[in-house]
Specification:
- The protein has 337 residues and is α+β, with helices and mostly antiparallel strands.
- It has a domain of 72 residues.
- The protein has 14 helices and six strands.
- 36% of the residues are buried.
Length: 337
């Protein structure tokens, strides 16, 4: 009986230990081999050689020294706490605050000529350009601490959910670094591989960044003038309308129909709202189409805004409506100071 009791305890302990270690095993990196040894990376290298003329030996050496970053994968995942909900009340102060306004004023004064020239060239207001750089990196004070080669390789080969997208960005980063004669390991950025003061992904660096100071090279990491011109060109490319409104706050006296909240694309007109009572906080533009944008906070009524085309363009920079509204309100704060 004693032996059976001990055996039973041992079996229970074994089961408990297996239950305990399973989560840790599930979170482990799926392939412990060096990146240059993994077949999918070797296939990627072969494609880079064939398509873009890279040296296989150089790329194998590069990936042999590239490091898996578990914190990158974790940062891409949804919050562990399922009770966390969207909150405009919590989100806004992170980006529209005295620190960003103070540094934004100094930035606009220091680079007034470049901001004016960007406005004249691309049609985007100076305060919107400055606000995006402020929201993204506090005017270059927080451009990211990850080696971009590590972040993109981790996401390209150890984050299946968006592996295809990040493999494309890895291709563009390798091409960008070669074109600009950069040390692959010297380029730092965000956990998603975004680079420089405006946090451009490599594809956008190659396609939309500009040499705005005319020194013969594009530098978004250390050259605010290039960053200013590149942000303005980006917004122009995605359809910024010069002189058009961005958004208008409204109060609804009637319930907002749920179909109105299904899209942030500006597809509605004032005629669509003729049967709903509302009050606008400023003069409503009667020409441009809009989307109805809710800004939700827990246990509070949502704020509602009419988001016009230029609001939608800002969401092409970052898909979040909270982000776009933060940019607009920081820009207004910079304009009014």
């Amino acid at each position: 009986m004693h032996k059976k009791w001990i055996a039973g305890l041992w079996l229970v302990g074994l089961i408990i230990s297996q239950v305990i270690v399973l989560p840790a095993q599930a979170e482990a990196r799926p392939d412990e081999r060096s990146y240059n040894e993994r077949p999918e990376v070797r296939a990627f290298v072969a494609e880079m050689v064939r398509q873009h003329g890279f040296s296989a030996d150089n790329l194998f050496n590069l990936f042999a020294n590239t490091e898996f970053q578990p914190s990158v994968v974790k940062a891409m995942e949804p919050p562990d706490n399922p009770t966390v909900v969207r909150s405009w009340e919590r989100y806004r102060p992170r980006f529209v605050n005295s620190i960003r306004i103070m540094h934004g004023q100094k930035f606009m004064q220091q680079y007034a000529d470049a901001l004016k020239r960007a406005h004249e060239t691309y049609g985007v207001p100076e305060d919107i350009i400055a606000a995006i750089i402020g929201v993204e990196t506090v005017y270059g004070r927080n451009i990211g601490r990850y080696r971009v080669i590590d972040a993109l390789t981790t996401l390209a080969f150890d984050y299946p959910r968006r592996a295809e997208y990040f493999r494309g960005e890895l291709v563009q980063f390798l091409l960008m670094a070669r074109e600009q004669n950069l040390d692959y390991f010297s380029v730092l950025g965000s956990y998603a591989g975004a680079i420089g003061l405006p946090q451009f992904m490599p594809t956008n660096v190659r396609q939309l960044a500009v040499d705005f100071d005319g020194d013969g090279k594009i530098d978004l990491r250390d050259n605010p003038i290039d960053a200013i011109g590149s942000v303005a060109r980006y917004l122009q490319f995605y359809g910024w309308q010069t002189g058009a409104p961005v958004a208008c706050a409204v109060d609804f006296q009637d319930a907002v129909p749920s179909p109105w909240l299904e899209s942030i694309a500006p597809l509605m007109t004032l005629d669509d709202m003729k049967d709903i009572r509302f009050t606008a906080h400023r003069s409503v533009d009667e020409v441009h189409k809009f989307a109805v944008i809710p800004l939700e906070s827990p246990n509070k009524p949502s704020e509602y805004w009419l988001g016009y085309n230029n609001f939608y363009v800002i969401t092409r920079y970052n898909r979040s409506t909270f982000y776009a509204m933060s940019v607009m309100q920081l820009a207004e704060a910079l304009h009014n100071e």
